Amino acid sequence: MILTGNKISEEISNERICIEPFQMDQITTNSYDLRLGNKYLVYTQDVIDTKQPPTYEEKEIPDDGLVMKAGDFILGHSEEIIGSNHYVPLIHAKSGTARMGLFVHVTADLIDIGSIGNSTFQLYATLPVKIFKGMLIAQVTFWVPEGKIDLYQGKYQHSRGPQPSRTYLDHVT
């Protein structure tokens, strides 16, 4: 079951959903619009080894925007800190964003219950596109879980800014 925009707003007031900063005008019929934060990461190695921490540069989106060429891949982040100990957040691209040729979270859209932090957006340009910090880029919906809830305690908890892959921590030796 998905929460309506009115219920999302109510659950923020009841502190069962965290969205900071919260802007009432970003509530929609059944989601909350997320803004693009001011930083992004670019991987700097030719081949990312899944058993090693990746190398990357953190950069800031200029005030006059960042042009992504077709084929560019960066990691951005939500301006908002989001999460819930009661609902399952799902991140989706806004349809207008996708229609510009910018893929947002093609995978990895499921946020664990109990994960509270900035969401990292995987941004992949299929066409040249100019992006701006603060632009509405994605939306989050909240879903009612069924069953016992175990809160997330993983490697991305309390994320601030864009986060590189930490897949290397998953390898068992």
Structure characterization notes:
- The chain is mostly beta strands.
- The protein has a single domain (5-145), classed as Distorted Sandwich (Deoxyuridine 5'-Triphosphate Nucleotidohydrolase, Chain A).
- Helices cover 8% and strands 35% of the residues.
- It has two helices and eleven strands.
- Strands 1-6-9-8 form a four-stranded antiparallel beta sheet. A three-stranded antiparallel beta sheet has the order 2-11-7.
- The model has no long low-confidence stretch (mean pLDDT 91).
Can you give keywords for this protein?
about 10% helix, four-stranded antiparallel beta sheet, mainly beta, about 35% strand, three-stranded antiparallel beta sheet, about 170 residues, Deoxyuridine 5'-Triphosphate Nucleotidohydrolase, Chain A, globular
CATH class: Mainly Beta
| Overall average pLDDT | 91
* Helix fraction by DSSP (H/I, runs of at least 4): under 10%
Which structural class matches the secondary elements? mainly beta
The total tally of domains equals 1
Give the overall form: globular
Distance between the termini: 40 Å
User: Poorly predicted ranges (pLDDT <50, ≥5 residues)?
Assistant: none
- The fraction of residues assigned to DSSP E strands is 25-35%
CATH superfamily: Deoxyuridine triphosphatase (dUTPase)
Number of strands: 11
